[in-house]
């Protein structure tokens, strides 16, 4: 499924970060995620927090604060892993506090402070420039009870990733 042309036109009229924020809100409206995290890659490939949206972000910005301001390849972020793998990531299943696969702040948010539990479904969608350079990621967070993306959600999410990549690439 494609994104309607009037939405694409509107996105293309916006500055990059504003377009990403609007795209994130649209993904929330189709229930693609309960929380969406935008991490951008800035000057010198420094990882920066762009935006966190969702009805209950539970202090996620504060929990993740220590992950940013460093070069992308020096972080433990899911963004780094997605760019290193050269593809989108799906993280799901059970985790325990202190697990090294997820950034500590993100894990604390996903487990709501518990020592262990199900992290739900995290879709990490990398946005690259035409030259392959990393521009940022969208991480769609879905609770386990909501299940994985379904119906047209994967196609719309991918179309949004591609459109936003082009916008950020300028």
Provide a brief overview of the structure.
35% of the residues lie in helices and 26% in strands. The protein has 170 residues and is of the alpha+beta class. It has a single domain, classed as GAF domain (Beta-Lactamase, 2-Layer Sandwich), CATH 3.30.450.40.
The percent of residues in helical segments reads 25-40%
Give the strand line-up of the largest sheet.
2-1-5-4-3
Order of helices and strands: HHEEHHEHEEH
**Mean residue pLDDT:** 92
CATH superfamily: GAF domain
Structural class: alpha+beta
Highest CATH level, the class: Alpha Beta
Count of separate structural domains:
1
Q: Supply the number of helical segments.
A: 6
**Shape annotation:** globular
Please give a structural write-up:
The chain is α+β, with helices and mostly antiparallel strands. It has a single domain, classed as GAF domain (Beta-Lactamase). The chain is built from 6 helices and 5 strands. The protein has helices at 5-13, 16-29, 60-64, 78-85, 104-110, 153-169; strands at residues 35-41, 47-53, 89-96, 116-128, 134-142. It has a 5-stranded antiparallel beta sheet, sandwiched between helices. Helix 1 packs antiparallel against helix 2 and helix 2 (16-29) runs antiparallel to helix 6 (153-169). The model has no long low-confidence stretch (mean pLDDT 92).
Strands, helices and their partners?
Blueprint: H1 5-13, H2 16-29, E1 35-41, E2 47-53, H3 60-64, H4 78-85, E3 89-96, H5 104-110, E4 116-128, E5 134-142, H6 153-169
Antiparallel strand pairs: 1-2, 1-5, 3-4, 4-5
């Amino acid at each position: 499924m494609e994104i309607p042309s009037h939405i694409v036109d509107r996105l293309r009229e916006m500055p990059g970060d504003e377009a990403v924020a609007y795209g994130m809100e649209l993904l929330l409206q189709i229930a693609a995620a309960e929380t969406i995290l935008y991490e951008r890659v800035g000057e010198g490939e420094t990882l920066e927090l762009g935006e966190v949206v969702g009805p209950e972000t539970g202090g996620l910005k504060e929990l993740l604060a220590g992950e940013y301001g460093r070069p992308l390849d020096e972080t433990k972020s899911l963004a780094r892993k997605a760019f290193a793998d050269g593809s989108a990531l799906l993280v799901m299943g059970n985790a325990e506090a202190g697990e090294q696969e997820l950034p500590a702040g993100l894990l604390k948010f996903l487990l709501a402070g518990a020592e262990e539990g199900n992290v739900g479904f995290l879709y990490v969608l990398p946005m690259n420039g035409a030259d392959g350079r990393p521009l940022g990621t969208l991480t769609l967070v879905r609770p386990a009870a909501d299940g994985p993306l379904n119906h047209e959600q994967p196609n719309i999410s991918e179309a949004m990733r591609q459109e936003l990549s082009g916008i950020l690439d300028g």
